[in-house]
Amino acid sequence: DAKTTQPPSMDCAEGRAANLPCNHSTISGNEYVYWYRQIHSQGPQYIIHGLKNNETNEMASLIITEDRKSSTLILPHATLRDTAVYYCIPQRGEYGNKLVFGAGTILRVKS
Amino acid sequence: GAGVSQSPRYKVAKRGQDVALRCDPISGHVSLFWYQQALGQGPEFLTYFQNEAQLDKSGLPSDRFFAERPEGSVSTLKIQRTQQEDSAVYLCASSFGVRSTTTDTQYFGPGTRLTVL
Predict the structure, then answer these.
(1) B99 Cβ contact partners less than 8 Å away, ≥ 6 residues apart
(2) Chain A contacts of B33, Cβ < 8 Å?
(3) For a designed S-S bond to B60, which of A11, B5, B65, B100 qualifies (C-beta 3.0 to 4.6 A apart)?
């Protein structure tokens, strides 16, 4: 499994964009980049995933560098409810693969 | 319901007691996973089912931990003779798990917080 490096914590002002980086320099060609978040006392919540193209959904955007060694999750207008631990997880696409969680980034959105 | 549900949400056990934790996956999801999350850490994989078959139990920490999914839907994680180090949040996740898909997103339940005294 590819190893990831994420900053331990980040602060963001409410209403501003939150940009969360992840380094995954050992990612394999068949591994997608998945992002999950975990709000306090809840189970992890799927946010977005991508292989090599940038992706956007109703929650966030995912920017993956051309060499696929790093990515950035963007929350365009952070709210207080976005305060959570964010995990970047490389994972092979086929079914049945366990998720390997690192330490993640604690994002604190402040008013 | 629309999501993964787990029960009970909280469980307090005396050391040495047996406990059973239940997971109801999203209807139609073939794959089911159990994870353990210690305080302040990320979740760690315990075991994986495809329908009723337990295909990977490499993460189970000891033979006191046992999981089953007899009809390929509801799953139960059982811990025998609980120890204080078993105190954690136990998370269940399910995914569509069909061979024809290229990606397979896991959806998590709220977890069961187990405290062993």
Answers:
(1) A94, A95
(2) 98-99
(3) B65
Which of A43, A49, A98 has the CB atom closest to B103's CB atom? A49
Smallest CA–CA distance from B88 into chain A, residue? A41
pLDDT score of B99: 60
| Cβ atoms < 10 Å from Cβ of A63 | 16
DSSP labels, B84-102: GGG-EEEEEEEE---TT-S
Q: State pLDDT tens for residues B17-26.
A: 999 999 999 9
Give the whole-angstrom CA distance, residue B71 versus residue B27. 13
CA A68 and chain centroid, separation: 14
Tokens of A65: 């560098």
